[in-house]
Amino acid sequence: MDIIKAENITKRFTGHTALDNVSVSIREGSIYGLLGPNGAGKTTLIRIINHITAPDSGTLWFGGHRLVAGDVARIGYLPEERGLYKKMRVGEQALFFAKLKGMKTSEATAELKKWFERFGIMGWWNKKVEELSKGMAQKIQFIVTVLHRPRLLIFDEPFSGFDPINAELLKKEILRLRDEGATVIFSTHNMESVEALCDDFTLINRSHNILSGNVAEVRRRMGRDNYRLTFQGDPEALLAALGNNVAAHKLSEPVETSEGVHFNAEFTLHPGVDMRSFIRCANEAVEIVTFDRALPTMNEIFIRAVEAANAGQQSVGD
User: Fold this and answer.
1) Cα–Cα distance measured from residue 199 to residue 179, given in angstroms and rounded to the nearest whole number
2) Which fold has domain 2-215?
């Protein structure tokens, strides 16, 4: 079942179209990446889901019914622009936000203490927010976002300001929340975290959805006919043996190892080339150490898709 289904969402501001006929489906219990360059329209879609603004046209469904204002109580939203009151004490402020979400003081206090202990921050309870670093303050905001156990969690650049250790802690918590039944949407420019966490994604560019799908499936599809080879031997002999099988190749500098000199190479095969024939030709020319499919990274997919979309839009404009 889709927890969020956006159908043909369009939103215009004066002199600017933020979203143009965008459709997105987000499976319940998944982690969904909402990607795109700055100004692409991601934040506008997030604000529509949060009922902060309304679309000019199109329909947004939440859990099988049209989104209404009351659904916001079942959504936790961590915006990129952080918003804590600097003069308030941490515990007092966390309780304030919890009660805004409808939690009783006793319930909120018990849950907050569990989270503070999990994050190792019980000593911060009576500190003022202005005494915290950016990363510390972000931990507090993460906690108050998830405290009321919302059905849907939306994180906008959740790892900004975190060192690698705390970023890894946050990733584990996001996965745990997903395993406990929450659906997670996160908007980010960190493509490594998309590969590590996301089941599915949508890439928005210039107000349009230009690419959607399952992360693993899209990587496999866009990496078709691309292979990575580590070998010992003469690179020229290898290229000569592969001949017309190869449409493009990239060869690294030699690498000294305890087992001798290795080369790393990436090949794009011509469509229809038999992989077994490719391996056989390569193995006759050099000694193969490793061989596997060279899947593109999400960063490469992001750049490739945006550049292709921009080139297409430019050609239409011309």
Assistant:
1) 13
2) Rossmann fold (3.40.50)
